[in-house]
Design goal:
Layout: E1 2-7, E2 10-14, E3 20-23, E4 46-48, H1 59-62, E5 67-69, E6 73-77, E7 80-88, E8 99-107, E9 110-114, E10 135-139, H2 148-158, E11 162-166, H3 181-184, E12 190-192, E13 197-199, E14 210-213
Parallel strand pairs: 3-4, 4-5, 9-10, 10-11, 11-14, 12-14
Antiparallel strand pairs: 1-2, 1-13, 2-3, 6-7, 7-8, 8-9
Length: about 220
């Protein structure tokens, strides 16, 4: 399968049979232009949404997608298994910014976790299904989510094979969040691909954990 980082917390997962899954598609230009990544175009078979904020949920886009996962539970779509877990967007049990869903997608013998806008620490006891996950997409920018230090702690405790940072400051994000660099400085093995895409195959999983810094496509 192929993982493509579109921007902010939005990724598309392209399966071997051509089906496409999209995580947290943003509304381009939302928050008075503070999120300036380009419009998301294309057709998707499944959308996985962590919460309803405009930088994670484009109503226009998901209205054309048959299968949309945005609630807690277990879901199955012809060989694609998705399980979601309730968490919070802040450290006050959602009283500041609401709820958040962590999702795990399992297909083609590979598991991919998207942590959404997680705003608090979690432990393996909270979500044991996340332990030793193949790929973890994790927010690192702080302020609205966990920061670099908290993300690093989660990575250490859950031990994913591949870590992909998201939700960080770029020239197209005017939110008061940090760049990717604070998080990368904490990680042991970092790969800067200079690309938005990552081919995920079983042979690159396992072994020494690595963090892959992808470049937003849009």
């Amino acid at each position: 399968m192929k993982l493509n980082f579109l921007g902010h917390a939005c990724f598309e997962l392209i399966l071997e049979d051509g089906r496409k899954i999209i995580f947290d598609p943003y509304e381009a230009g939302s928050y008075d232009g503070a999120l300036a990544y380009g419009p998301i175009k294309g057709n998707y078979d499944i959308a996985v949404i962590s919460h309803s904020h405009a930088d994670h949920r484009s109503e226009d886009l998901i209205s054309g997608i048959k299968n949309v996962v945005e609630s807690e539970g277990d879901f199955s779509f012809d060989g694609v298994e998705i399980k979601t877990f309730p968490t919070f967007h802040d450290e006050s049990e959602g009283s500041e910014r609401g709820n958040n869903l962590i999702s795990i997608v399992k297909t083609e013998r590979i598991s991919v976790a998207h942590l959404g806008d997680l705003g608090h620490n979690i432990s393996p006891e909270d979500i044991p299904e996340l332990v030793n996950i193949d790929v973890m997409l994790i927010p690192v920018g702080g302020y609205f989510t966990i920061d670099a230090a908290a993300a690093h702690k989660i990575v250490e405790e859950f031990n994913p094979s591949i870590v992909v940072p998201m939700h960080f400051k770029t020239e197209k994000v005017a939110f008061p969040i940090e760049s990717i660099e604070k998080f990368l400085a904490l990680e042991n093995k970092v790969e800067r691909t200079g690309d938005s895409e990552l081919n995920i195959t079983e042979d690159i999983l396992g072994g020494e954990q690595k963090t892959v810094a992808l470049k937003p496509a849009l």
